[in-house]
């Protein structure tokens, strides 16, 4: 699901970023709907999490304008009746980029073009079909921009929370979350936020603030929102893991067992920074689990070295001393 969301946001950004005509048409639809023009933004990059939140925020708040623009098919279907600028550059010349073009049947060309456009329109319809329903629609609760200005409805968000509980039940149970308490805690969460002048703008509308304020009263519902907000937006973690695996399992260590490799990767990827790492527990495990008992407190007493044969000053060899 996260991959689908990322592909959707990336596709919208590419569609409007690379075409001034598309941007102008979208802005015109926003003006007709009396909405603020929120253009799709970039996903990913070094600051991928803020970029993702901004892209989701613009998409959710500008959803009506984007859908209206795409439903009219002013971007794609108009090319059924007339060729676009790129196609005109090919049709009205015998060459393209210095390459001589062979003439083709006009009817066959138009048929292939219309089939391609129809296929694109179907794919867009399928891609947008589940945005306004199901789990994706319920995840709008994570954006405070989608909350009403005043809690005029006592059951606001109840249906969405139930959908999220049903979808993520196994994940929540495995994390020790009491899913039966989430609906009641959701009601408490709403009440407390609106009582804290949430709708008047005097309250900082961020989830870290809500966690600090209500973690002791609504732990389970906040765990649900934490799960929604930590869905990875990219495959960067997987790629980082493969990169570390190549460093660990090199040509010189190609016979590492799977269990050993897994332990080494966990150490590399999941361990805290070296300055924050407390080795006491690891040392205790190493000391207790060995076949032969370790002697970390043992101090080898070196005698005075002799002049010949490695003997000490009293005439006994080092081997005899150890025995």
Description:
By secondary structure, the protein is an all-alpha fold. The protein folds into three domains: 2-135, no CATH class; 137-229, no CATH class; 254-288, no CATH class. 56% of the residues lie in helices and 1% in strands. It has 17 helices and two strands. The chain has a two-stranded antiparallel sheet. Strand 1 (95-96) and strand 2 form a beta hairpin. Helix 11 (182-195) packs across helix 13 (219-229). It is flat, with a radius of gyration of 32 Å. The model is unreliable at 302-323 (pLDDT under 50). Residues 216-266 form the HAT C-terminal dimerisation domain. This is HAT C-terminal dimerisation domain-containing protein. It comes from Perca flavescens (American yellow perch).
Overall tally of domains: 3
Radius of gyration (Å): 32 Å
The end-to-end distance, rounded to whole angstroms, is 68 Å
Provide mean pLDDT, rounded.
77
Listing every helix as H and every strand as E from the N terminus to the C terminus, the arrangement reads: HHHHHHEEHHHHHHHHHHH
Q: How would you write the strand order of the largest sheet?
A: 1-2
Percent of residues in beta strands? under 5%
Output the structural class: mainly alpha
Tell me, briefly, the overall form: flat
**Uncertain parts:** 302-323
For the largest beta-sheet, the strand count, sense and barrel status come to: 2 strands, antiparallel
Strand elements, count: 2
> Helix segment count?
17
Secondary structure: helix percent: 55-70%
Pfam families: Dimer_Tnp_hAT
Domain HAT C-terminal dimerisation: 216-266
GO molecular function: protein dimerization activity
Protein name: HAT C-terminal dimerisation domain-containing protein
């Amino acid at each position: 699901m996260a991959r689908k969301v990322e592909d959707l946001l990336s596709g919208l950004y590419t569609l409007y970023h690379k075409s001034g005509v598309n941007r102008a048409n979208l802005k015109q639809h926003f003006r007709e709907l009396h909405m603020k023009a929120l253009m799709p933004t970039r996903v990913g990059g070094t600051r991928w999490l803020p970029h993702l939140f901004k892209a989701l925020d613009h998409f959710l708040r500008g959803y009506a304008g984007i859908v209206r623009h795409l439903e009219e098919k002013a971007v794609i279907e108009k090319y059924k009746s007339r060729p676009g600028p790129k196609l005109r550059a090919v049709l009205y010349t015998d060459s393209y980029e210095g390459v001589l073009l062979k003439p083709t049947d006009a009817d066959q060309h138009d048929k292939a073009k219309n089939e391609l456009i129809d296929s694109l329109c179907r794919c867009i319809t399928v891609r947008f079909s589940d945005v306004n329903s199901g789990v994706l629609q319920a995840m709008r609760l994570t954006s405070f921009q989608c909350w009403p200005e005043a809690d005029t409805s006592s059951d606001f968000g109840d249906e969405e929370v139930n959908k999220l509980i049903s979808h993520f039940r196994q994940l929540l149970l495995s994390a020790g979350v009491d899913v039966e308490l989430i609906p009641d805690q959701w009601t408490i969460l709403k009440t407390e936020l609106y009582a804290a002048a949430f709708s008047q703008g005097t309250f900082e509308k961020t989830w870290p603030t809500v966690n600090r304020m209500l973690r002791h009263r609504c732990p389970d519902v906040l765990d649900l929102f934490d799960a929604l907000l930590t869905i990875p937006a990219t495959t960067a973690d997987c790629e980082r893991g493969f990169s570390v695996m190549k460093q660990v399992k090199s040509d010189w260590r190609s016979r590492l067992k799977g269990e050993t490799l897994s332990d080494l990767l966990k150490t590399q990827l999941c361990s805290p920074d070296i300055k924050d790492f407390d080795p006491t527990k690891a040392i205790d495990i190493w000391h207790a689990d060995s076949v032969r008992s370790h002697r970390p407190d043992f101090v080898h007493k070196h005698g005075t070295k002799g002049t010949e044969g490695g003997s000490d000053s009293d005439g006994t060899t080092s081997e005899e001393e150890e025995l």
